[in-house]
Design goal:
Elements (H helix, E strand, L loop, with lengths): L1 E3 L2 E4 L2 E2 H8 L3 E5 H13 L6 E6 L6 H10 L2 E4 L2 H9 L7 E3 L6 H10 L2 E4 L2 H10 L5 E6 L21 E2 L3 H11 L3 E5 L9 H15 L7 E3 L17 H19 L4 E4 L3 H4 L3 E12 L4 E5 L8 H4 L6 E3 L7 E7 L7 E9 L6 E4 L20 E6 L2 E6 L4 H5 L12
Helix pairs in contact: 2-3, 6-7, 8-9
Length: 413
């Protein structure tokens, strides 16, 4: 989203015009930003074999997956549903890495039938795999015991996280692998999201290299992701160039010492799509409280829960009235909960009917949307090569009833 005069535009398309055509609330994605982020990330590594696997849980719209496929990305999937979406989008099964957490054994078997790469994250899964799928190689998700991330809810690499196998249990892992004749061809880790300090990444990568020395059949190492993207103007971000240089050097040194050329994998999600997304709402009402002016909009935590769930900051601009006097507003939703997008935020004067746009709305925003309060899901639009495409229609009232069975129950009274 850029400013052209007094217009906010995406690839030359006025946001106001897009909202007039497709309605609000509306998610809008910019394919040029995704392509820019992908090219930047690819450029910072200097290794012989590199796979960038988009962590599609960030945004799984099939048009976004097809865009990723066109860029040369692979897929990091965490559910059978995501695997099927990726296959439908054109990905080869070998381009899909399945890295679930605590899923049922039946889901592992279903993924195996689809031919994707499997990652196991607990000892029971290793036992199951050896019994039911002997000879099929897998990867292991290792928990490096490094606490990193923007807050507790997105720090997933510490020793008490549910994700991965703690490194303190490696001897048990080796025993289980041997007893069940399970071949390991990959190691995976992921420490968290919104990680600013590159040294924390490197601390975890060193641990993964130490573990990797003891596995003789490795074909790849997956270093996860979690790079911090900017939310505030002039916000600090992860030094991607430094990360790429350091990890590439360590990886190449490891491969040289081992005498084997492995594949380096990373699994970015937010880094690729966060800044590509804009969420636009319309102001329903302005309400004056004792110490606060509320701008109530036609959306809520049912469409955009990150500020309430993660206390995340998203810049808000008044698309309809961008250059008026700044006033402090608390921007709130229409849900029967405290669904506050921003407290006392300085925004150009807001009037009923104005359009407000939230930046950095590409990752974990629509994907966490729901029908709470029996509200309908918004539409999604992708702007590609200057042309807007409707990639998800807005829900209609009939959609609320579609899956209800409404059996003939004889009620008393």
């Amino acid at each position: 989203m850029v400013v052209q005069g007094e217009q906010f535009t995406i690839q030359g398309n006025s946001i106001s015009d897009l909202c007039a055509e497709y309605g609000t609330p509306l998610y809008i994605y910019d394919s040029e930003v995704v392509a820019r982020q992908y090219a930047k990330l690819k450029s910072v590594f200097n290794v012989e074999k590199l796979s960038i696997n988009y962590a599609c849980k960030a945004l799984t719209n099939i048009s976004i997956l097809r865009l990723m496929h066109s860029l040369g990305s692979g897929i990091d999937a965490v559910s059978i549903g995501e695997i099927h979406l990726a296959l439908k989008a054109g990905f080869d099964p070998n381009q899909i890495v399945f890295t679930p957490s605590s899923v049922a054994s039946s889901e592992l078997s279903a993924a195996k039938k689809l031919g994707v790469r499997i990652t196991l994250d607990n000892l029971d899964a290793i036992r199951y795999w050896g019994v039911h799928h002997p000879g099929i190689p897998v990867a292991l998700r290792i928990n490096p015991g490094v606490k990193a991330g923007g807050n507790e809810k997105i720090s997933v690499g510490h020793s008490d996280s549910k994700f991965g196998i703690p490194i303190r249990y490696l001897e048990k892992v080796r025993l289980h692998l041997k007893e069940n004749n399970v071949k390991v061809i990959g190691l995976h880790m992921h420490t968290g999201s919104d990680i600013l300090d590159v040294s924390l990444f490197l601390q975890a990568t060193d641990i993964l290299f130490e573990v990797a020395h003891t596995f003789q059949n490795l074909e790849y190492l997956d270093f996860g992701s979690g790079f911090k993207v900017p939310y505030h103007p002039n916000d600090a971000t992860t030094d991607i160039d430094l990360f790429g240089r350091e990890v590439s050097a360590k990886f190449n040194e490891f491969c040289a010492k081992e005498g084997r050329q492995l594949e380096l994998m990373i699994e970015p999600g937010k880094y690729l799509v966060s800044d590509a997304g804009t969420f636009v709402v319309r102001v329903n009402a302005i309400k004056q409280a004792i110490n606060t002016i509320f701008a109530g909009v036609n959306s809520g935590l049912n469409h955009f829960i990150r500020p309430m769930f993660y206390d995340s900051y998203h810049e808000i601009v008044n698309v309809s009235n961008p250059n008026d006097t700044l006033e402090d507003y608390s921007v709130v939703g229409y849900i029967c909960e405290t669904d506050t997008f921003a407290w006392n935020r300085a925004i150009s004067k807001i009037r009923p009917g104005d359009l407000l746009a939230f930046r950095n709305a590409g990752a974990y925003c629509f994907m966490m949307a729901s029908n709470y309060n029996s509200r309908l899901l918004p539409a999604e639009v992708l702007v590609h090569e200057g042309i807007p495409y409707l990639i998800r229609r807005r829900q209609e009232l009939e959609d609320l009833f579609r899956d209800l069975t409404d059996p003939e129950i004889h009620w008393r009274g």
